[in-house]
Design goal:
The chain has about 260 residues and is an alpha/beta fold. The protein contains 9 helices and 15 strands. β2 and β3 form a beta hairpin. It starts with a helix and ends with a helix.
């Protein structure tokens, strides 16, 4: 009986040793995103593609981890990272004071512009058609009292547009929120809203895919994109920042951006 027990123990030890040395499970790096934001993140069939997806993959490789992508509602990304449900959030996220109270952000990896999309026959031809200004060029009131601005909920476009007029907002009552950018664009085409405010690169994709709409030449706002990481996860923040620095130095980040956003 003792001999049998000994043989079993030896077998178990051998199996454990083999697992530890030869088939150690790879750690995962869980990324939360909202894959309806081309060219930063979108779906091609069942696969994910885009600038943020490829950058995340390179970061995971640098860290020796397997990237796992979770496609979730945009508004749940920050809270999911904050709670530890996801390791990081990469979804064209702009650093804001409010978000900084919930999570940490890495160094910026891309700069974006918020623009306005209108129908081709819209009376709105520039941002100046929306605001009345004082002598110093500051907005004081809306030219179109009941203007309806479509945004993707919880984005910086939502935050900016919902602000008061003196801070270049349109007021909470004039903002209509949608789950995704395409939903907002569909509402614009149907005539439910007057303007869509969204990032420039997704805006280009939406305009290219839909007839009868255009991007106004005047920009609405400038912002930087960064990766959200839980405040408690300082080591991951340091590791990702190091990976971003090395990838930037090697020209890999710019190569990915140029792939999806060719120089005009």
């Amino acid at each position: 009986m003792k001999k049998v027990i000994s043989l079993v123990l030896v077998a178990l030890m051998a199996l454990t040793l083999f697992t530890a040395c030869g088939e150690k499970e790879t750690e995962t790096l869980v990324m939360a995103t909202n894959a309806a934001f081309p060219p930063y993140e979108f779906k091609e069939g069942d696969s994910f593609a885009g600038i943020d997806i490829e950058i995340a993959q390179l970061i995971a490789e640098k860290l020796g981890k397997e990237l796992v992508i979770e496609d979730v509602e945009f508004g749940s990304i920050i809270t999911g990272v904050q709670s530890g449900k996801y390791d990081m959030g990469i979804a064209g996220l702009t650093v804001t004071d409010e978000r900084l109270t919930q999570v940490n952000f890495t160094t910026s990896y891309a700069t974006a512009v918020q623009v306005m999309i209108v129908k081709n026959d819209s009376a709105i031809t520039s941002i100046d058609d929306c605001f009345n200004y004082d002598e110093e060029g500051n907005p004081v009131s809306l030219k179109i009292e009941n203007i309806k601005i479509g945004v993707q909920e919880n984005t910086t476009g939502d935050i900016y547009c919902s602000d008061e007029v003196t801070k270049w907002g349109f007021g909470e009552s004039n903002v209509v929120r949608y789950k995704t950018g395409p939903d907002a664009v569909s509402a614009l085409i149907k005539g439910d809203i007057d303007v869509v405010v969204i990032d420039n690169e997704p805006a280009k994709s939406f305009v290219a895919a839909n007839e009868g709409i255009k991007i106004l030449e005047t920009e609405y706002a400038y912002e930087d994109y960064a990766i959200a990481i839980a405040k408690e996860n300082e080591q991951l923040l340091a590791d990702v920042n190091k990976a971003l620095a090395e990838l930037t130095e090697a020209g890999e980040i710019q190569k990915i951006i140029d792939k999806y956003i060719p120089a005009e």
